[in-house]
Specification:
The complex is a heterodimer of chains A (about 120) and B (about 350). With about 120 residues, chain A is of the alpha/beta class. Chain A folds into 2 domains: about 35 residues; about 80 residues, Cupredoxins -  blue copper proteins (Immunoglobulin-like, Sandwich), CATH 2.60.40. In chain A, the strands form 2 sheets. Chain A has a 4-stranded mixed beta sheet with strand order 2-1-4-6, with no helix packed on it. A 4-stranded mixed beta sheet of chain A has the order 3-8-7-5, with no helix packed on it. The longest helix of chain A is centred in the N-terminal third of the chain and has 24 residues. Chain B is α/β, with parallel strands linked by helices and about 350 residues long. Chain B contains 7 helices and 13 strands. Chain B has a 6-stranded mixed beta sheet, with no helix packed on it. Chain B has a 5-stranded mixed beta sheet with strand order 2-1-3-4-5. A two-stranded antiparallel sheet of chain B has the order 12-13. In chain B, helix 2 runs parallel beside helix 3. The longest helix of chain B is centred in the N-terminal third of the chain and has 13 residues. Classes of the chains: A alpha/beta (about 120), B alpha/beta (about 350). At the A-B interface, strand 7 of A face loops of B.
Chain lengths: ~120, ~350
Amino acid sequence: MTRNNVWVAGVAVPVLIGMLLLFAASPSVKANDQPSAANATVKIDNFVFGPQTITVPVGATVTWTNVDDIPHTSVSTDGVFKSKVLDTDEQFSYTFTKAGTYPYYCTIHPKMTGKVVVQ
Amino acid sequence: MPEQKQDFIDQKLQDLNNDGVDRRGFLKCMAWAGTGLVWTMSGGIPVSRAFAKGYGKDAAKGADFSFVQISDSHIGFSKPANPDVTATLQTAINKINAMPHTPDFIIHTGDLSQLSKPSEFDTLDQVLKGASAKQIFFVPGEHDMLTDNGEQYLQRYGKGTKGTGWSSFDHKGVHFVGLVNVANLKAGGMGSLGHEQLEWLEDDLKGRSASTPIVLFAHIPLWTIYPDWGWGTDDSEQALSYVKRFGSVTVLNGHIHQIMQKVEGKVSFHTAMSTAFPQPAPGSAPSAGPMKVPADQLQRVLGITDVNYLVSGRSLAVVDSPLGASGSSASGNASAPVALVDTIRG
């Protein structure tokens, strides 16, 4: 794992710098940044919701995608939203219309927890 | 520590040594998925054996009866870790049928299906129909209750059970209890039995003689193996407190797709192999997801796992480490894979 991470970091850092330079050179990307930030994605990978905590504006739609070989769910702890069982590559979206903190978990693997903060 | 019992188990395991494996020099636990464990009741003490080439020569000698535990069939799973889980379940059933003595019954410790689909349950039924042992007891895994709160599972496999599918029965002087620890799981938690089931269990065991051998079976381990992956049951302590007064208690679980054993006082804990795909040793991978191996090695290494985990706060240890490509250590006998189980005392 450690070795992999180092390798990934070694490749990712130059790539990131390259991307930043690209973006800096293209102001149109910056202008489009605002609307796209309204929607967010959570990847379910290796039995982890990533990112574990996601902060979005009111009105944002959050989409969960399960990339594991094992089914998962995304279910609000307070009963606000509930996905169906998501098999590999299946998605679930929910639009948050009220500010607040929304904890959720996978009902199949309850150790998997996450949080959506709506501001 | 149950000195006598330990020796007994060791002695029994020595009987397996006609497989050519140097047990002492070998890794403490090794497993093969696509098979099951045979349990032989002898003097009220269950002894586990893996299906092995020489199995059966003396298996029934002195035994009161035997039964087979299979687990985690995951019918419907078709990912690279095993594209044909129906075939490997069939292999397990063939091995049961090839045993010289028909086991009295089979216990399936859950995750029959991958997605609780009717078609998956149909396929499972079709394969299990071919088993020599006609009676099969089930407890659900979390994959069997993905939709409709397990309603369909209950209709098919839980007839006559209570609550979400728990029940008990007696067989030749042994009291068996099937528990459900995969329903109504709480955020951040592990497996859960719940108040209602615990009350039922206490009541079920009340009034039974302390000399009655008890077998508890449930999908998720009833002992904490690896909390980070949810490999344990939050309220299992409560359940185990009810069996403390009994002289022989055996706890059979699945869920983790590898063999682990622990003896604590008079209670022996065992987890079974999967018939579908192996899972990594605790903490050895980023997650508990299916272990993928190259297709041409699947039959050789499928589920061959040994565990390396120290049960925290206990001197008891179960040692596991992956066998990987060294499938030849199973006597080079890929068609009749061998599994050894060992219990280690601190």
